[in-house]
Structure formats: structure tokens, C-alpha cells
Write a structure and sequence with these properties.
This protein is mostly beta strands. It has two domains: about 40 residues, Single Sheet (Rubrerythrin, domain 2), CATH 2.20.28; about 30 residues, no CATH class. About 0% of the residues lie in helices and about 20% in strands. The radius of gyration is 17 Å and the shape is globular.
């Protein structure tokens, strides 16, 4: 099932919900204040690209520097 990001219109909390493509309003409830008033956010798809466990040096963007061009999980 896809993951969708939401922002609660009542308390502003951000949360993820796993559900079918067709959103059922009653299925989406804020975990902080239990409100059903929310805004569905645009998500960036994850493609599973990341550094291997054998890499010894951290990527610059993991240390707060400029991005290293897609070689880490920060992209």
C-alpha cells in the first residue's frame, strides 16, 4: 500500500498514513489530536538509493554540507 503524508489542520502535526489510493476521510486521523481535518501533502518518492554499509566516510550532506549528488540516503 502507498504511504501518504498529511498535515493536521487543527494542531499542525505531520504524519504518514498507509492506505489504498482512494482516500477514505474517516481512515485518516491525526495521531496527536485525533482530528479528521487534514491536508494531504505531496510526497517525494523513495527509490531506495543509498550508501552501502561498507562506505567509511559520511556524505557531505549528512554532515550539513552541500549535497554529494545522489550517492546517499539524504536525497
Amino acid at each position: 500500500m502507498p504511504v501518504y503524508d498529511y498535515r493536521c489542520n487543527q494542531c499542525g502535526a505531520l504524519y504518514d498514513v498507509y492506505h489504498k489510493v482512494k482516500e477514505v476521510k474517516e481512515d485518516v486521523v491525526c495521531p496527536s489530536c485525533f482530528s479528521q481535518e487534514h491536508t494531504r501533502l505531496m510526497s517525494v518518492a523513495s527509490v531506495g538509493v543509498g550508501r552501502s554499509n561498507t562506505d567509511s566516510a559520511p556524505c557531505a550532506c549528512e554532515m550539513g554540507g552541500e549535497c554529494c549528488g545522489g550517492g546517499c540516503s539524504m536525497n
